[in-house]
Design brief:
Elements (H helix, E strand, L loop, with lengths): L2 H23 L1 H25 L6 H41 L6 H19 L2 H5 L11 H33 L3 E3 L3 E5 H22 L8 H29 L14 H22 L1
Length: about 280
């Protein structure tokens, strides 16, 4: 076994059980966990942007990103909207007070607010999935709600993991035509097709195997769910690839040995979570 594979397995062996425990706990524990992940991801974003010559506030942006999941837990999406509006007001005022005009304070404010919303705001869509605000309003008891909410939150997460693995395998075996050569030359059309097929199978099998009594969408809607979430997960991956290429870095950081940075692990999930929530909300 290669050293890189050992590092990857070690990180997964610690990270996956921790994620499951925090998700099962739910409530403020889960929201704080998501917020912490969002703050770390934003810090990587700000570091990359500064490396590309664009200033961003590290601490205010990280605080904003951290607060999005608790804001959604306490105040729903109205709470998130108020927090986003606060960032749009506070960031320019802070930039005008502390950043010289030659350093482009409004650009700094815009990048900070965008980064906090992009990482923290999108990740916060995991809150209504875990807390049963879609699909699970009538879950039996506390334990049933915890288990069902945990499984529902992990549906788009597991879907992206399996789709990513399928994209790698399909690209290695059949990849010839690049999917987006200027953004990510190693990604292929064959890999994307394999990822979408894996998304369809995962969307169908995961609920049937793990919570068939809770999953109410029929087969057509389930397949649409898999296709849309899988497609947006691919776009999320490409978006972060474009960000890294723009900033001239290979990974968002070296935080997770063998995996890169937190944003490298979140890229697809950031797009998959809101897609899953919106589709289930529309279906319900």
């Amino acid at each position: 076994m290669s050293p890189d594979l050992r590092r990857r397995l070690a990180v997964a062996g610690v990270g996956i059980p921790l994620c499951v425990l925090l998700t099962y706990a739910g409530g403020i524990v889960f929201a704080v966990g998501l917020g912490t992940v969002a703050a770390i991801g934003y810090r990587e974003f700000a570091t990359m942007m500064r490396g590309a010559g664009t200033r961003a506030f590290t601490v205010p942006g990280a605080i904003g990103a951290f607060l999005f999941p608790p804001a959604v837990l306490v105040g729903g999406f109205e709470g998130a909207a108020l927090l986003g509006a606060g960032l749009v007001l506070v960031c320019p005022a802070l930039a005008l007070a502390t950043v010289e005009l030659d350093d482009k304070p409004i650009r700094c404010a815009a990048v900070t607010a965008f980064g906090a919303v992009y990482v923290g705001g999108l990740l916060a869509f995991g809150i209504p999935l875990r807390e049963g605000r879609v699909l699970l309003p009538d879950a039996g008891g506390p334990d049933d709600g915890r288990i069902a909410g945990t499984l529902l939150f992990f549906l788009p997460v597991v879907l992206t993991w399996i789709a990513d693995t399928a994209a790698y395998a399909g690209g290695r075996a059949f990849g010839r035509r690049p999917l987006a050569p200027r953004v990510s030359p190693n990604k292929t059309v064959a890999g994307a097709v394999a990822a979408l097929l894996a998304s369809l199978f995962t969307a169908f099998l995961y609920p049937q195997l793990l919570f068939p009594d809770v999953w109410t969408p029929g087969v057509p809607l389930t397949l649409v769910f898999g296709l849309v979430v899988g497609a947006l997960a691919i776009l999320g991956d490409l978006a972060e690839s474009a960000l890294k290429r723009e900033c001239g870095v290979k990974d968002s950081s070296s935080l997770l040995p063998g995996h890169g940075g937190m944003l490298d692990r979140l890229d697809s999930v950031l797009w998959a979570l809101p897609a899953a929530f919106l589709l289930l909300a529309l279906a319900g």
